[in-house]
Amino acid sequence: MEAQSGAVAGAAATTTTTEQAILMEKCEQKQKKMKVMVAIDESDGSFYALKWALDHLFGSMGVAPETNPEEVGTVVMVHVQQPFQQYVFPAGPGGAAFYATSTVVESVRKAQEENAAAILSRALQLSKDKMVKAETLILNGEPKDMICEAAEQMQVDLLVVGSRGLGTIKRAFLGSVSDYCAHHAKCPTLIVKPPKKSTK
């Protein structure tokens, strides 16, 4: 009788171990095909966040050089540019109104596009060096809203944003994209803070 109950307990233990192995395998498969969105702008903080994500979320998987990048996962790099408004500028002693001409608007738009292309080209090179499949996305609008919207529409597994390290007063007045995303994104959000600079 004792031998029989020992056999049943052994079978239960084997089943639990097998179930754990299956769960671990499923988690590894999901991790390998993870879709991560990283918000990129010209700041050092956003590039530090991208490097951190590539090193820790993709680089730690022990990927062999011959592995197909699609099996590892995808990083989506999103850059949001704020639309240029034709503001009214007071000009002259009487404060006469001045509107930006269409050539000024067009040159600003072209400069924004070139800036976005340069930023994403640099980001793409980082992902290429780490052999991680990457996609880029350029959006127009308010950055914090557009990043959250894009993360939801693309159904990413994780949103990674850098921290500019704004002080309490600046954050209160200017707001923080990272804080906003942490509270409004519909997916898990990781805020990567850059290392503190040494004062030596």
Automatic annotation (TrEMBL):
UniProt xrefs under InterPro entries: Rossmann-like_a/b/a_fold, Universal_stress_UspA, UspA
Domain UspA: 35-193
PANTHER family: ADENINE NUCLEOTIDE ALPHA HYDROLASES-LIKE SUPERFAMILY PROTEIN
Name of the protein in its database record: UspA domain-containing protein
Species name: Carpinus fangiana
Taxonomic path: Eukaryota, Viridiplantae, Streptophyta, Embryophyta, Tracheophyta
